[in-house]
UniProtKB/TrEMBL annotation:
Keywords: Ligase. Residues 375-443 form the AMP-binding enzyme C-terminal domain. The keyword Lipid biosynthesis does not apply. It comes from the Bacteria. Residues 21-309 form the AMP-dependent synthetase/ligase domain. The keyword Ligase applies. The lineage of its organism: Bacteria, Pseudomonadati, Pseudomonadota, Gammaproteobacteria, Lysobacterales. Pfam families: AMP-binding (PF00501), AMP-binding_C (PF13193). Belongs to the ATP-dependent AMP-binding enzyme family. Gene3D superfamilies: 3.30.300.30, N-terminal domain of ligase-like (3.40.50.12780). This is Acyl-CoA synthetase. It comes from Dyella koreensis.
Length: 453
């Protein structure tokens, strides 16, 4: 069967990049309801949805089912539009994002009540591939903004970052090289993170679109559901997850089918958790480092607490207020708030904290991240976070903590902290709560922390 590449904007065909790489029409793009979905079937579904989408500059992709998200993502791109990916799918968050793009609409596979303004429900995916000797893969202009991601809001108001199709092709190449070095040429992915998050976008949307990778259509949350999803694919299997999800999986005692590797992001992976997971599931843990601004730029073996190894073509330049990042997927360098220490002629680095996390009180210094790690090390503390409050009327910024620790009281926790941190950094107030307000990827939006406090 011949493969034909067709541009939806013929004037930019010369600079177009394929919507679907690894162009074998029979190769598996996704696993849905326990069945393999071929590339040919997938493109037929994309064309079916693209034909009924309205005009506009952008659309909020609200699909819960990962396969429906993949189809809608590509259909929106084929219409020359951008996928809007708010940090939350809460109704107000969706409305706020749409307000910045007049004429935008929302699309999803479910009947929503209440539904966002201009909500379009996807049709039942029943299109069949065209018969014949040609397999037509659309070309997308390299400079087309296909997605606009938003930061989580963990440090304030979410910010938007546009992603072109060229930048996604470039960032996917780094992730693919890192995984193939551990797993080999072909593998399938089960992800516990939503595709709307940039980490989920890179690992469960771009990998199956731009590589010979199949992805499970679900987003399993409970340990038994993760095991069931993995069992529905032949493998080699890669589990894409977060430290919060992985800890629950390890503590559940659930047995998993053989997996080739685990990948984690969104929060620091404790080395002891990584080692326990590797022993339990018999697979290496690959931790990746990135952001909505830059996409993934480095990886490491978390169990050994290795320095981070930069992806090919990525260069870091320490600054007084953070670190400037050069990467193949970036048009210009972007400065992150992370403070790093470079090693091995700049090809590896250690994280020293974030500029906004560094504290200086009474001539002493500490980082919010380190204080949180010491809090979590206290026996009986199940979850917790230390953060700095906004300044009061005279500019004093107090340190606060929220802790999940059934069986402990505030006094006991503070006394335990006195043994490992300077008294000036003891969090006051420290509040016991039933659960932290983590979002779908385990992050803690600052507004939610302040409201709970």
């Amino acid at each position: 069967m011949a493969i034909v590449y067709d541009s939806y904007r013929h004037d930019l065909a010369a600079t177009g990049l394929p919507l679907l790489a690894a162009g074998n029409p029979a190769r598996t793009v996704a696993w849905h309801d326990g069945k393999s979905v071929s590339a040919a079937q997938f493109l037929a579904h994309v064309q079916q949805v693209a034909a009924v989408l309205p005009s506009g500059s952008a659309a909020v992709n609200l699909c819960e089912d990962r396969y429906a998200f993949l189809v809608a993502f590509c259909a929106i791109v084929l219409r020359g539009q951008a996928n809007l990916l708010p940090s939350s799918r809460a109704p107000q968050a969706v409305v706020d994002v749409m307000a910045g793009y007049p004429g935008s609409y929302a699309v999803g596979e479910q009947a929503l009540d209440p539904a966002p303004p201009g909500y379009h429900r996807m049709p039942v995916l029943d299109a069949t591939p065209a018969q014949g000797d040609l397999f037509v893969v659309p070309l997308i202009p390299a400079d087309h903004v296909v997605a606009i991601g938003y930061t989580s809001g963990s440090t304030g108001v979410p910010k938007s970052y546009p992603k072109t199709w060229r930048s996604f092709h470039a960032s996917n190449a780094g992730n693919l090289r890192a995984l193939r070095a551990v797993v080999g040429g072909h593998f399938d992915v089960v992800a516990t993170v939503p595709p709307q998050h940039m980490y989920g976008m890179e690992t469960s949307v771009l990998l199956p679109l731009l590589s010979d990778v199949g992805v499970h259509a679900g987003r399993p949350f409970f340990p038994a559901d993760i095991a069931a999803a993995l069992a529905q694919m032949p493998g080699p299997r890669v589990l894409v997850t977060t430290p919060i999800h992985l800890r629950a999986l390890v503590e559940s005692g659930v047995m998993l089918p053989p997996i080739a590797a685990m990948m984690s992001a969104t929060a620091p992976m404790p080395p002891e958790l990584a080692r326990t997971a590797e022993e339990r599931f018999g697979a290496p843990m690959l931790e990746v480092f990135g952001s909505t601004e830059t996409c993934v730029i480095a990886s490491r073996r978390a169990a050994d607490d290795e320095p981070w190894a930069l992806y090919e073509g990525v260069h870091l330049h320490p600054q007084p207020d953070g670190t400037a990042v050069e990467a193949p997927q970036l048009e210009t360098p972007i400065t992150l708030a992370d403070i790093v220490s470079l090693q091995d002629e700049g090809r590896r680095f250690r994280l020293c904290g974030r500029h906004a996390d560094l504290l200086e009180i009474a001539g002493k210094r500490a980082s919010v991240g380190d204080l949180t790690r010491r809090l979590l090390a206290i026996p009986g503390v199940q979850d917790g976070v230390v953060f700095q409050l906004d300044g009061d009327m005279i500019g004093v910024k107090r340190i606060a903590a929220l802790v999940v620790a059934p069986g402990l009281d505030e006094h006991t926790i503070l006394e335990a902290l006195r043994h490992s941190i300077e008294p000036v950094f003891l969090p006051r107030p420290l509040r016991l709560v039933d659960a932290l307000p983590r979002n779908e990827t385990g992050k803690l939006p600052r507004a939610a922390l302040l409201e709970l406090l």
